[in-house]
Amino acid sequence: MARIDLVDLAHSYGGNDAPPESFALKPVTMTWRQGGAYALLGPSGCGKTTLLNLISGIVTPSRGKILFDGQDITPLSTQKRNIAQVFQFPVIYDTMTVGENLAFPLKNRGVQRAEIDARVKQIADLLDLTPYLNRKATRLTADAKQKISLGRGLVRSDVAAVLFDEPLTVIDPELKWQLRSKLKALHRELDLTMIYVTHDQTEALTFADTVVVMHDGGVVQSGTPAELFDKPAHTFVGYFIGSPGMNIVSADVSGHEARVDGHVIALHRNYGVLPAGKKIEIGVRPEFVDVAAPGSGLLSAKIERIDDLGRIRFARVRVGNAKFSARVPSGFSISGDTAGLIFDSAHIHVYADSRLVEGVA
Amino acid sequence: MDKTINQKAWFLVLPVFLVVAFSAILPLMTVVNYSMQDTFGNNQFFWNGVGWFKELLDPSTDLGGRFLASLGRNLFFSGVILAIEVPLGIVVALSMPREGWSVAACLVILALPLLIPWNVVGTIWQIFGRPDIGLLGYVLNNIGINYNYVSNEIDAWVTVIVMDVWHWTSLVALLCYAGLKSIPDAYYQAAQIDGASRWAVFRAIQLPKMHRVLLIAVLLRFMDSFMIYTEPFVVTGGGPGNSTTFISIELVKIALGQFDLGKAAALSLVYNLIILIVCWVFYTVMTNAGTDRPAKEGAA
Lengths: 361, 300
Fold this sequence. Notes:
Chain A has about 350 residues and is of the alpha+beta class. Chain A is about 25% helix and about 30% strand.
């Protein structure tokens, strides 16, 4: 159990001399607190698995340091780091029974027999593996095998952190829910630091108290699910999280006003004069844009189609060249293919070169 | 079910049937026929029933004695070379590089002995081991080890075994290497995380994953060594005395040396049968090892 600090940590598979933009992980400094449930969220190739492998020691960083409880462990091998990791595909020791598989990490570290038995029993109970303990692990289903892999990760009580690398990829959707809630329960039960890598926002948002969003080798924002939803620090976070993603349109912003396609949208905060030469955009989540009957004072849009998600409907509309998603209020019926858009100005954010600009209230 | 009856399809099998008949069944039947007869000059044949087979299994007769002694030598030889080549092959495969240009170099070097014809291998070792002009024999004798495969039985055996190990360990190593390459990296990473020692990685991951290729290697090496003829024939000619006379060498002596076609035919049938049975046993073991034995499994 430990607090993990990353100090200017960066990695390139091409070596330290590779050009900075080719780094798989660009320099990052952050802290993972003891007992937290973290998710590393990002699309494939964004560097999240690299970051995970750096923490576990499978990959040695090109630059920077990793501290466990303030102690520099960067040069230590995986074995000496006291960390557990669960991989995308189940790793099972074929010749061993389920029980022996679970006991393997403890046996390798010379833990007392009685202690091993007790711990294996506890973990098997938590993962509902008790009936299988004496069976050969090779003959089980993929999800049972992945549970064994999870179990091997959790069986050591003294690990600094348990890392999960997209562990539910091979699991059926229905079992995914079960295993995910199981993991959350285990996190509460065992008081372990858990870092969970995924590209699935639902998985990340339901598992973690803190979600770290990565994009193109860098960390773009870390925060609670609510923070990521309400106030994305980067346009990438805006459209990666949420379904449909945030509307991002280029606009001219000055003071309390944003101008889109000749139409003025009021802003909640004052942005003064933004620096010239930067790409200025406004972002607003579809949940905060309502479709209304066309009228004066409303930005008028052309409706392209309506997506009915059951509980809620979203209209895909077009304003000039920009595409928007907007909520269709319940009971509102659309006539014709033009509509007006009503913006909730408190939830409009302004971005300069993709990064959030804080306005003055 | 409306099944069209069309016997003309049999004509399509006819060519294969003819080829198999002439290439396998008829020659085999000729051998079966010989094994029941005693042969004399001028193509005279006398019916002997199962007499030769009875003699073969009776160690007190000349034929039986020679057969059982050479069978014993064959089994001993196969046992020894398996005991050396399998562990050695695994060690070689484990110490081979996993990536980079050196992989290709290693593969080529390993493949070289496999590409040399059997009698060339025999000739190489025959000359290599000669005490007067061979590098190995000359050096050994000059550092005080009395080595002469022509006159000493143990030296002859050592030469034949070392020669086979030199010739065929590569095969085991290449098969094991293929098995090792098929293990995903995640297994090694997981083992690192689980704190496994080198030995534990071997026992828990590498050996189980090599299990099937090892069975194939054992099968191939057993069958091949059980049928060995050329190399010992070239090096020792079966000697000194009969000490390295394997079944195949004995067979050639009886068939071509003494021209006892009946005895030779009976011996080849039994020899063939042993190989078939061992093959079948290996095959059964291998296919059972491949499946996960679901029959034993109760409902989950």
